[in-house]
Specification:
- The structure is a single chain.
- Helix 8 (155-164) packs across helix 10 (207-270).
- The relative contact order is 0.11.
- The protein has 22 helices and 20 strands.
- A two-stranded antiparallel ribbon has the order 1-2.
- By secondary structure, the chain is an alpha+beta fold.
- Keywords: Metal-binding, Ubl conjugation pathway, Zinc, Zinc-finger.
Length: 685
Amino acid sequence: TEEMKMAKVIHKHCDNCYSVHCQAPVNLSISCMVIKCHKHCGAIFHMCKQDEHQLLCPYEMVPFLNVDFGCPLTMLRHKLAKHLEVCPASVVCCSQEWNRWPVHETDMTFYRKVSENLQLNTETNLDVALALRDQALLFQSIKMKNIFPEMTEDPVFQNISAGVNSPVKDAFCSLDFSEFTENGRAEMEGVEVSQEERNALAKNDGVASTQNYITWERIFKKEKDGCNQAVKNLNKEGKWEEKEEQKYLNCEVENRNSHKRAVSDTRDMDGATGLAPWQDGVLERLGKEVNIAEYNMYLVHNGAMLINFGQLAACTPREKDFVYGNLEPIEVQTVRSFNVPASYRAKRSHLKDTSHKAKTAHQSVDTADLGLSIEDLPKSEEVSATLLCSLEKELKGHFISESATTDGLYVDIGTQTYNFSSAPFKADASLADVIAERPCGLYFDVETESVTRRHNKMTSAFSYMCGHSFRRDEYQSHFRNAHCDIQASLGGWYQQRCPLAYLGCTFSQIRFHPAGQQATIKYCQDVSALVFQPHIPATLGDGGKSWSPRRSAAQDFNGLSSLPLEILQHIAGYLDSFTLLQLSQVSHLMRDVCATLLQERGMVLLEWKKKTYSHGGSSWKSRKKIWRFSSLFSAVDRWSFSNVPSMSEHLKSCTFYQREERREPVALACLQEVRERHGKLKHER
């Protein structure tokens, strides 16, 4: 109707009217009638404000706030806040951090024993399992090319070498690779290729090498042209700067001469008795008439004028230079060809000898002084050397052996070299790739240190972050059980190790279990997290009958899949998120059953994909939405002591507990002093 069309435009009267009892007459150009909300929220407003009210009505159906993050639900507006707590798209990433120290060389006994038995009970040894997880993540993140660039294969070098060593290498008579730089570039001489050479390359099936050659020829030609142009620009700038400097000097001389002529009459009138900056001998007279404080203050306020009128030297004259004396010109070509001036008499700050009699000598020390060949030298261990260099370079910002300046002339230069059996490394190789074919070992301390972001962590320790994602209503349980109750207590409270672990004993036991049920906490490598595993008797699922291997797999599957879908959904509703994650991978039926609980128990994540453009830019876009269950296990509100024997029972049979019985008398440490005192007392009596 015409009235509804006009209602979309707010009238002049309605724009400022907020009265629920408005009695203004209905005029299509000025005002409209007053109505109530058709959602029955109780609001009363003019009809033209109906669209505006829909943006605020608590009973309006709207999509949820996280619709862009994957939440598919629509609901009444007044329920948005309540749903935010259980929204599957409201995902929290755990940011708990901790530090781990690399194992010290003097404390390798226990870790060698652990490395030998890594395949035994890694699920129950929680501290070892978590240390191995952190170690694997770190080894995957450390790139060898960032730590040892000199021992990494350069793909550019390989491509050029492949072109040079091709069957048509005779045609590259004019190609000369003189020197490779750090960026993989090379300086080339004679890069022109004639038509005859191109034909010879084509006849010898060197098409790929020809393309390689032409590409590098074009690159180096551009670089050469750029260098030539840069030299020309520098020459032009140098000539222009010389001209400008000459003009500036000429102007300064003219200004100074004119200034002196202007004040010459004033000097004659004042005579040689005043204290003006342009009068001759003003500093000598000032030094006799005033004290040192006033003399310095005069220099501060009038120093510029004293220099301009020639009363004060701008620089210390050469004959008054007490440090160098007479300077001799020295041409500095390189840092190593620089010679110390003979007139230099400075003191070295780190020398204690104040009489300048301390002697220094230039000496080079390297492995050649050992008298051994390179083949006889021991090989460096990749893991220890890489971890040490990574800590020094990435955390402390410098190399293990870098040049150190002692004063203005002396520099201590050190070079650290390594000899790895697996070198050279591939360009994209990580530390995990280098040791992939070797037996796995433990190189980090099993105990962790929790350090917050407010503390300075620039120490020789590596930092780790949990990084697991959970629903907002699951995060509290995860942080309390996984980090506070378990991980923070693995150093002797939740998990107890043998006191002789430093000698190599790997025995450990769990001292707690969830109250009210028999269960253990284990580490699951599939999800890289701690999980809850209840103790289920073996005869429980068979109705009291023992398990028989003759029973077919079909009978096992039919025992649960034959139940109605409603019952399966009801049973799955009692499972925690981790169990639902594992159950969804059993069969298609169980996957469909778990899918019905995704909106209620699962979470939705965005999968991002990087897109690179032709001009070199890049952007990230959401490719799809992924629904899944988290790795959260059932919440544990209270813990109870497990029924495990005391550690003293283990010490009775521990192979590392060796008793040493001594039956011969041993003198006490202070026994001799006591005897001497008794002897003196007897002698006095």
